[in-house]
Specification:
Strand content of chain B: 15-25%
Largest sheet of chain A: 6 strands, mixed, barrel
Number of strands of chain A: 22
Structural class of chain A: alpha+beta
CATH superfamily of chain B: Winged helix-like DNA-binding domain superfamily/Winged helix DNA-binding domain
Radius of gyration of chain A: 37 Å
Number of domains of chain B: 1
CATH class of chain B: Mainly Alpha
Shape of chain A: globular
Shape of chain B: elongated
Strand order of the largest sheet of chain A: 3-4-9-6-8-7
Number of helices of chain B: 4
Distance between the termini of chain A: 47 Å
Number of domains of chain A: 5
Radius of gyration of chain B: 17 Å
Strand order of the largest sheet of chain B: 2-5-4
Oligomer: heterodimer
C-alpha cells in the first residue's frame, strides 16, 4: 500500500461512522459463511469448509479496505485532487492568496474576540450548578440590585416560589495572619449561600444557615481556591486556623472548589464570611435598618415555577412590606433578571456594548466577504481561459465549481485559523488584564468550544458566500467564445455585480471608520476634560481605619498622625486627606440635598442643589491641585467646636448665590437643618463619573465630620516609585495591622476611564480593520481594472494619450464607486450615530470634525490604494506589451 | 482453471448490474449468478466483488438493505435502482457496439497489395 492510499484509507475511516465499518465487516463475513455453507453441503467438514471459503475469498484485508473506500465513493479521492490543485493554484498567485487570507483573518479575528466577549458576558450563565434557575432580584423602576437585610429576611421567609434566596455583598477588609495586614476582597453572604447554590467544599466545611445566631455570632471564613493557593500556599492545615479580619478573630472553616468564583462574573473574591458578622469584616450596612440597602439577592426558583409566577409571589410580599413599613418600603416592586453583572446595573450597558461590538464585527466580516467576493469574481474572469479549456476537455461545470469552491474554502479555513489565532492572543491578554487598579476585576473571556465553533462556522459561511460569487460566471462560460477571443468579452455596462460588491464594502468600511473616529474623539474629549484636580505628580494612599479597629476620635487622631508622618518625608509639597475620592468607581462620592438659607420646609422638591459632598483636611486643595477661586481654605480652627463651614464649587455658588463673588460669607442649610457658612469657592470638577454634567459639590472640614474612610493625597516632585516605597514603609510602622494601598493618582484614574477606554480601544480597532479592508478592496479593484486593460492602455499611450487621460480611463470608475460607497457609508454612520453615542463616551457622528475626518480618511485611503495601480497604468510601455501578445 | 478468461477492466460492474437485474441477491448470490450466467468461464476472486458492489451503491445504481438468506444468515441484499436499470441498458448497448466494432476490426483480412 502506498503512503497516499494508506492516508486516504485513514481519512476514510475517520470520516465514516463506525457502524458503517462494522456493517461492511459483517457483510464480508456473511459472504464467507454462505460460501462455507455451500462447501459443507458438498461434503466437507465445517472447519475445512470455512478454511476453503476464506481462501476462495482472497485477500480479506485488501478487499475490506478497497470496499471501504469504494463505499465512500470517489468523494475523498476527488477531494484530495481538488485540494492538491487548489494549493497549487493558490501558491502560483501568492499575492492574491495572501491578500485574501489576511482579509478573512481580520474578519474572523475581530469576530472571534467579539464572540468570546458575548459568550462570556451574555451567553454563558454563571458557572454554578443548575444556573438556569438562578435569578437576581431587583427593586423598582430603576432596577436597583441592592436591598436591605430586613427586606431580604422577609422575602426569604415569605415567598414560596424559591428553593432559597441568598444575600451577598462585596466588601474589603484587612486580613492579618501573624504579620502585616493585607487588603483582601470578600463576599459577605447569608448563611444559606453555599447550600442554595449547591456548592460543596473542596476542603473543610462551609457555614450554614444554622450557624447564624444574631450579630457577630458567626466569625467564620471560607477561602476561595486561588487565594488559598496564593496566600496560604495551599496549606491543608489552614482549616481551623484563626486569622484577624479588621482585628477581629475569624476561624477558617474550609476552602471552596477551584471552579467556584462567587456569584458575580467579573470578580473572584478572596474569601466568604457570613453577613451576620459583617460589621466586623468591613461591612458597610446596618443589618437591622430597613432603609440601609446594601445586599444583593439571588434566588433559585423551585422546579416548574416560572419567572412570572415568582415575580407575582415577590410582589405579594412587596405589598405586605409596603403596608407594614410604609416609611421605607412604599411602592416597592420586584423583578427578576439574569444574575452575574450586578443585575441590570452592569448588565444593561454591558449587553448594549457587547451587542454593538458584535454587530460591528459582523459588519467587518461582511465587508471582508464583499471584498473577497469581488476578488474571486475578478479572478474567475481572468481564469475564464482555464475554465473554458477544462470545459472543452470534458470537465463538468459541477466539477469546476467544486474546484473553485475548494479554493474558497481553503482560503476561508486558512484565514479563519489565522484570525482565530490572533483572536486567541488578544483574548489571552484580555484575560490577564487588570483594568481597574483598586478592584481585582477579572474578565472571564477565556475561549471555549463555542468560540472555536463560531469561528469555524463563520469562516465556512463566509467562504461559501464569496465562493458563490463566481458561480454565475462559470455557468455562463461558453468555451468556444472564450478560446476564440482570449478572454471574456462581455463588458459590464452600468453598475455590475462586482461594482455593487465594492460599493457595499466601501460603505461598510466608511461606517466603521466613522465609528472609529467617533470613539477616538470621545476618548480625546474625556482625557481633555477638566477633572477639577491635577492627577500628575501625586500619589494616593488608601485605607479604611475601621480595618484596624479605629473609630470616632481615635480615627481622627490616627489621620493626624498619618498626615504628619507623610509630611515629614523629604520632597513633599503638600499632603491632603479626604474621605471619598472623586471618580473612585468603587466607593463613589455621595450626593446630599442642600437648601437655601431661607427655605423653611426641608423636603426634596424644595432643595436648591443635590451636591456631591467630600470631607477634606486643611491642605486638601493644595494637595489635590484644585484651584480656589475666592475665599480661604480650612484651618485647624474649623473643628467640631467651631461654627460649621464649607467650601463650595462654582456651580453650587452660582446656583445658590447667583455668582462666585457673592457666595463667600453666605449661608446654606443641610437636610438636617444646620446652617453652614461658605468660606471659599473652588473650581468645578468631576465627582462621580467622568461623563457627568457639571454638578454642585461642597467640601466640608474633616474635623467637623470625622470619618474612617481615608484617602491621602501626596503631592511631590519625587519619583513616584521611590516615594511610594518610602510612604509605604513609614505608614506600616504606624500600625502593622492597618493595610494600605499606595498608587499614583494617574494609575487610579485608569479605573475611572476604564469603560470609555475599552469602548474607544475596541471601536478604534474595528475602525482600523475597516480602513484596512477598504484599502485592500479598492486596491484589488483598481489593480484589476488596470491589469485587464493593460493592452488597451498600451495602444492609447502609443497613439499619444496623456497620463491624465489614461488615469481617467482606468481609475475614473474606481473613484466614482468609492465616492458612492463613501456617501452611503457616511449617511449610514450618521443615522447610526445614536447607537454610537450610546456606547462611546460623548460620541456623535454629527460632530463636524468626525464627518470631515471620515471623508478625508476615505479619500486618503482611495488615493493610497489606487496609487500603485495608477503608476502601473501610466508607466505602461507599449512596445513591451505588444510584443508579449 | 486455465481456460477461465481474465475480466476486462470495467466489465465487472456490468456483470454485477446484469446479475442483480435478474432479481435481488446478496453478494455471494451475485457471485454465483455471475459464474452461472458466464458458464463458469470467468476468473473473479470472490472478494473483488465487494469494492465493485460498493462503488455501484455509491453511484446510486444499486440499493442495499439487510435481509435473511435462504439458509437463515443475515446478509446484505442488492436491488437495481431505476438509474441502475438505465445504466445497464446503456452499458449493454455500448458493449455490443464495442464488441461488434472490435470483432469487425479483428476479422479484417489483410488487403491484397
Amino acid at each position: 500500500m502506498t503512503l497516499l492510499s494508506s492516508l486516504r484509507h485513514r481519512l476514510a475511516t475517520l470520516f465514516s461512522p463506525p457502524d458503517r465499518n462494522a456493517e461492511l465487516e459483517e457483510e464480508l463475513r456473511s459472504h464467507i459463511q454462505l460460501r462455507a455453507d455451500d462447501l459443507e453441503r458438498s461434503g466437507l467438514g465445517r472447519a475445512e469448509a470455512e478454511r476453503r471459503a476464506r481462501i476462495d475469498f482472497g485477500g480479506y484485508e485488501r478487499y475490506r479496505q478497497e470496499s471501504h473506500e469504494a463505499a465512500l465513493g470517489r468523494f475523498t479521492e476527488s477531494l484530495a485532487q481538488d485540494l492538491r490543485f487548489a494549493v497549487r493554484v493558490l501558491r502560483k498567485s501568492l499575492g492574491f492568496t495572501s491578500v485574501a487570507v489576511l482579509t478573512l483573518a481580520l474578519g474572523i479575528g475581530a469576530n472571534s474576540v467579539a464572540f468570546s466577549l458575548m459568550n462570556a458576558l451574555v451567553l454563558r450563565p454563571l458557572d454554578l450548578p443548575h444556573a438556569q434557575a438562578l435569578y437576581s432580584i431587583e427593586r423598582g423602576k430603576q432596577n436597583e440590585p441592592a436591598q436591605s437585610y430586613p427586606d431580604y429576611r422577609d422575602l426569604r421567609d415569605r415567598t414560596r416560589s424559591f428553593e432559597g434566596i441568598v444575600a451577598y455583598s462585596i466588601t474589603r477588609a484587612g486580613l492579618s495572619d501573624n504579620g502585616d495586614a493585607t487588603t483582601a476582597w470578600l463576599y459577605q453572604v447569608s448563611g444559606n449561600y453555599f447550600d442554595v447554590l449547591d456548592i460543596r467544599p473542596y476542603l473543610g466545611r462551609f457555614f450554614h444557615a444554622s450557624d447564624e445566631h444574631g450579630d457577630n455570632s458567626a466569625n467564620y471564613l471560607v477561602l476561595s481556591y486561588p487565594y488559598w493557593q496564593n496566600h496560604f500556599q495551599g496549606d491543608r492545615s489552614v482549616v481551623g486556623r484563626i486569622v484577624l479580619l479588621n482585628k477581629h478573630p475569624f476561624t477558617i472553616l474550609g476552602v471552596a472548589p477551584s471552579k467556584f468564583h462567587g456569584t458575580e462574573m467579573y470578580f473572584t473574591p478572596n474569601f466568604w464570611v457570613p453577613l451576620v458578622s459583617g460589621s466586623q469584616a468591613g461591612g458597610w450596612g446596618d443589618l437591622n435598618l430597613r432603609a440601609s440597602r446594601d445586599v444583593w439577592l439571588l434566588g433559585r426558583l423551585k422546579p416548574g415555577v416560572t419567572v412570572a409566577q415568582a415575580t407575582t409571589d415577590l410582589n405579594a410580599v412587596g405589598e405586605y412590606l409596603a403596608a407594614t413599613y410604609p416609611a421605607q418600603d412604599q411602592h416597592i416592586r420586584f423583578s427578576l433578571t439574569r444574575p452575574g453583572l450586578m443585575g441590570d446595573t452592569l448588565g444593561r450597558p454591558v449587553h448594549a456594548f457587547v451587542g454593538g461590538i458584535m454587530s460591528l464585527a459582523l459588519l467587518i466580516l461582511l465587508a471582508a466577504c464583499a471584498n473577497l467576493g469581488s476578488l474571486f469574481a475578478a479572478r474567475a474572469a481572468d481564469r475564464s481561459r482555464e475554465v473554458a479549456l477544462r470545459l472543452s476537455l470534458g470537465s463538468s461545470r459541477r466539477r469546476i465549481l467544486r474546484q473553485l469552491m475548494t479554493e474558497a474554502m481553503l482560503i476561508s479555513l486558512t484565514g479563519g485559523s489565522l484570525g482565530l489565532l490572533g483572536g486567541l492572543l488578544a483574548l489571552h491578554s484580555l484575560d490577564t488584564w487588570q483594568p481597574v487598579p483598586s478592584f481585582p476585576v477579572h474578565l472571564p473571556v477565556s475561549p471555549d468550544a463555542r468560540t472555536y465553533a463560531a469561528a469555524l462556522v463563520l469562516a465556512l459561511a463566509s467562504g461559501f458566500l464569496f465562493g458563490l460569487v463566481p458561480v454565475r460566471q462559470v455557468l455562463r462560460t461558453n468555451p468556444w467564445q472564450v478560446v476564440k477571443s482570449g478572454s471574456l468579452t462581455a463588458r459590464d455596462h452600468g453598475l455590475g455585480f462586482r461594482d455593487v460588491l465594492l460599493v457595499i464594502q466601501v460603505a461598510v468600511c466608511a461606517v466603521l471608520i466613522t465609528a472609529c473616529l467617533v470613539a477616538v474623539r470621545g476618548l480625546q474629549q474625556s482625557l481633555r476634560c477638566n477633572y477639577g484636580f491635577t492627577p500628575d505628580h501625586a500619589l494616593l494612599v488608601q485605607t479604611d481605619l475601621s480595618m484596624a479597629g479605629y473609630d470616632g476620635g481615635r480615627a481622627t487622631a490616627m489621620q493626624r498622625r498619618i498626615l504628619d508622618t507623610v509630611e515629614a518625608l523629604p520632597g513633599i509639597s503638600a499632603v491632603g486627606l479626604t474621605d471619598r475620592m472623586p471618580l473612585d468607581g468603587e466607593n463613589m462620592v455621595n450626593n446630599h440635598l442642600m437648601f437655601k438659607e431661607t427655605t423653611a420646609e426641608l423636603t426634596a422638591p424644595n432643595a436648591a442643589a443635590n451636591a456631591a459632598v467630600q470631607n477634606v483636611s486643611t491642605n486638601y486643595f493644595q494637595a489635590a491641585g484644585t484651584a480656589l477661586l475666592t475665599g480661604r481654605v480650612f484651618s485647624r480652627q474649623d473643628d467640631a467646636s467651631a461654627p460649621r463651614v464649607a467650601i463650595v464649587n462654582r456651580t453650587f455658588a452660582i446656583r445658590l448665590f447667583g455668582s462666585v463673588e457673592s457666595a463667600t460669607g453666605g449661608y446654606f442649610k443641610t437636610a438636617d437643618g444646620s446652617r453652614v457658612q461658605v468660606v471659599g469657592v473652588a473650581e468645578d470638577g468631576k465627582y462621580r463619573t467622568i461623563a457627568e454634567q457639571p454638578q454642585s459639590a461642597i467640601f466640608e472640614p474633616l474635623l467637623q465630620n470625622p470619618t474612617n474612610a481615608t484617602w491621602v493625597i501626596v503631592r511631590s516632585i519625587r519619583k513616584p516609585q521611590e516615594l511610594a516605597a518610602a510612604v509605604d514603609q513609614r505608614l506600616r510602622r504606624l500600625d502593622t495591622a492597618l493595610p494600605f494601598t499606595v498608587r499614583t493618582w494617574q494609575n487610579e484614574l485608569d479605573g475611572a476611564l476604564f469603560a470609555s477606554r475599552v469602548v474607544s480601544v475596541s471601536l478604534g480597532m474595528l475602525g482600523t480593520f475597516g480602513a484596512m479592508l477598504a484599502f485592500t478592496g479598492i486596491f484589488g479593484m483598481a489593480s484589476y481594472a488596470v491589469s485587464r486593460r493593460l493592452k488597451e492602455l498600451g495602444i492609447r499611450i502609443a497613439l499619444g494619450a496623456q497620463p491624465r487621460n489614461v488615469l481617467q480611463a482606468v481609475l475614473g470608475r474606481a473613484f466614482r464607486l468609492l465616492a458612492l460607497g463613501s456617501v452611503v457609508g457616511l449617511a449610514l454612520g450618521a443615522v447610526g450615530s445614536n447607537l454610537l453615542a450610546f456606547i462611546a463616551y460623548q460620541g456623535t457622528a454629527r460632530d463636524p470634525l468626525v464627518l470631515c475626518g471620515a471623508v478625508a480618511a476615505m479619500m486618503f485611503l482611495g488615493l493610497l490604494a489606487t496609487w500603485v495601480p495608477a503608476l502601473r497604468a501610466v508607466s505602461v510601455h507599449p512596445v513591451t506589451l505588444l510584443r508579449e501578445e | 482453471m486455465n481456460d477461465q478468461a481474465q475480466l476486462l477492466p470495467g466489465t465487472l460492474d456490468l456483470l454485477i448490474l446484469r446479475a442483480v437485474s435478474l432479481g435481488p441477491r446478496h453478494g455471494y448470490g451475485i457471485l454465483l449468478r455471475i459464474s452461472q450466467i458466464s458458464g463458469n468461464s470467468l476468473l473473479i476472486e470472490q472478494g473483488a466483488l465487494y469494492p465493485g458492489l460498493f462503488r455501484l451503491v455509491c453511484k446510486c445504481l444499486l440499493k442495499a438493505s439487510w435481509g435473511t438468506s435462504e439458509n437463515n444468515r443475515r446478509a446484505m441484499f442488492y436491488t437495481l435502482t431505476a438509474g441502475g436499470r438505465r445504466r445497464l441498458q446503456e452499458e449493454t448497448d455500448n458493449w455490443k457496439r464495442l464488441v461488434t466494432t472490435i470483432t469487425a476490426a479483428l476479422s479484417t483480412q489483410p488487403e491484397e497489395a
